[in-house]
Design brief:
It catalyses: an aldehyde + NAD(+) + H2O = a carboxylate + NADH + 2 H(+). The protein has 491 residues and is α/β, with parallel strands linked by helices. The protein contains 16 helices and 22 strands. The protein has a seven-stranded mixed beta sheet with strand order 14-15-16-13-12-18-19, with helices on both faces. Helix 2 runs antiparallel to helix 6 and helix 10 packs across helix 11.
């Protein structure tokens, strides 16, 4: 049991305002391995009363504590300490991801050591300060100040728990906010490890809390009058609900939601680069990525070559135990998700799309929520598999006749999160990029970079995370008019 709980000192307690305390619930949340279907751990289950305690601690720390009143450079010191503590726990973070989500350990262990980078980058931003002096029309000066938005509820999904949480926590801390983190009940461990890192960094009391809870209690948190902002990553359906609740009380909100991103392959594309650029989207995290290139738009002249190349790459993928050295793709995260993905595959077949490869549970794996990498072709953009987010290792090839038609197909969707174009012509790549209504777009692949703003158009969300824009999302803007500047701004 010690191994499965990843050196956590108090795995069955809540972290409220800097202290570990018992939940008022009598039961807990069981963690189930998606690879073995067996119980591998248990954490506390927060109640609404626990939520009230966490909000009260965060509210008091924001209204009366030192954190929001520190300078940016002062907070940066703590952020760098957090990064240092995270480096010590890199293997615990890696094992948590593989244990709960099924990410191959060979991949998670190479990623985890870099996760502290979110906090050092946020520290760099905080050190730049939050004041800008501008001339006022009537004379004198206007000091445009960015002040922390307040108490933040950070609600994150299960697919990349530490990365999605850090996009919120690192930047909110840099801004001077206090935070209540609510991880997914399927993947609570990273948030608890992070809480220990933040405690070890001696962040002031009340600034950070972690509440492991079911989704009904999460709804209570986003409705809480003591919460100034909700930052949510997850499904579009949940995001729209949260947006309606929070906006109804003029609360602040950032949402990063679903996607059905298109990879547009132009007629001069290098097929090798197409495979290199698309495959990590479809099999990384077993395809459970909101920015996956799940629609593959191909000119008729290249359709056969792309089908053959992608199918061969998919058939080569080693699916299995996340902790086996040879595994390249693990399982889907839950039994429900497994059934959902298989149902989408059935719908694709029923609606007339043809399976090039995959479509079933791997024959050698009779336990765990595994599915083969799957490629459809002969699909049209009105099919369910081309309209809805599958969130599994499923790609759909759609043929097109002209570049204009490809752009129209790519934009014909309720989502607008990511996308890419594959071409050897830089000018064509940029021209196409500017015409696709998505928040992120790549040339010959996909890039996600926490130093660059990330988010979506349309029903893929509101606001941006990462970069200076991500920091600004946790601030309010105030204009202070002064005839004379205070001493620290003279110079």
């Amino acid at each position: 049991m010690t191994d499965t709980l990843l050196n956590l000192a108090s795995p069955e307690k809540l972290f409220i305002g800097g202290d570990w305390s018992s939940s008022s619930a009598s039961d807990g949340i069981e963690i189930i391995s998606p690879a073995t279907e067996e119980k591998v751990g248990r954490v506390a289950k927060a109640t609404t009363a626990d939520m009230d305690r966490a909000v009260a601690a965060a509210r008091n720390a924001f209204d009366n504590g030192p954190w929001p009143r520190m300078t940016g450079p002062e907070r940066a010191v703590y952020l760098r300490r957090i990064a240092g503590e995270m480096a010590k726990r890199a293997d615990d973070f890696a094992r948590a991801w593989s244990l709960q989500v099924g990410m191959p350990y060979a991949q998670s262990v190479s990623t985890a050591p870099f996760m502290g980078g979110y906090y050092t980058y946020a520290a760099d931003l905080a050190e730049k300060g939050f004041e800008e002096v501008r001339p006022a029309l009537a004379g004198g000066h206007a000091i445009v100040v960015r002040e922390p938005v307040g108490v933040v509820a950070a609600v994150v999904p299960w697919n990349a728990p530490l990365a999605t949480l850090s996009l919120k926590v690192a930047f909110a801390l840099a801004a001077g906010c206090t935070i209540i983190a609510k991880p997914s009940p399927e993947t609570p461990l990273e948030a608890l490890i992070l809480a220990e890192c933040i405690a070890a960094a001696e962040v002031p009391e009340g600034v950070f809390s972690v509440l492991t809870a079911d989704r009904d209690v999460s709804d209570y948190l986003i409705r809480h009058e003591g919460v100034d902002k909700v930052s949510f990553t997850g499904s579009t359906a949940a995001g729209l609900h949260i947006a309606s609740v929070v906006s109804g009380r003029s609360g602040r909100i950032t949402t990063e939601l679903g996607g059905k991103s298109a990879a547009i392959i132009l007629d001069d594309a290098d097929i090798g680069k197409v495979v290199e650029g698309i495959m990590p989207n479809l099999v990384g995290l077993c395809g459970q990525q909101c920015a996956a290139f799940s629609r593959i738009l191909v000119p008729a002249s290249l359709k056969g070559a792309v089908e053959e190349a992608l199918a061969a790459a998919m058939q080569y993928v080693q699916v299995g135990d996340p902790f086996a050295e040879t595994t390249q793709m693990g399982p889907l995260v839950t039994q429900r998700q497994h059934g959902r993905v298989l149902d989408y595959i059935r719908q694709g077949k029923a609606q007339g799309a043809r399976v090039v490869t995959g479509g079933n549970r791997p024959a050698h794996l009779d336990k765990g929520w595994f599915v083969e990498p799957t490629l459809f072709t002969d699909a049209s953009n009105d099919m369910t598999i081309a309209r809805e987010e599958i969130f599994g290792p499923v790609g759909t090839i759609i043929a097109y006749g002209s570049e204009e038609e490809a752009i129209a197909i790519a934009n014909d969707n309720i989502y607008g999160l990511s996308g890419g174009v594959f071409t050897q012509d830089v000018e064509r790549a940029y021209r196409v990029a500017r015409r696709i209504r998505t928040g992120n777009f790549g040339h010959n692949g996909r890039v996600i970079d926490y130093t660059i703003p990330y988010g979506g158009f349309k029903q893929s969300g509101v606001g941006r995370e990462g970069g200076e824009e991500g920091l600004h999302g946790f601030t309010e803007i105030k204009a202070v008019f002064m005839q004379e500047l205070p001493a620290h701004l003279k110079g």
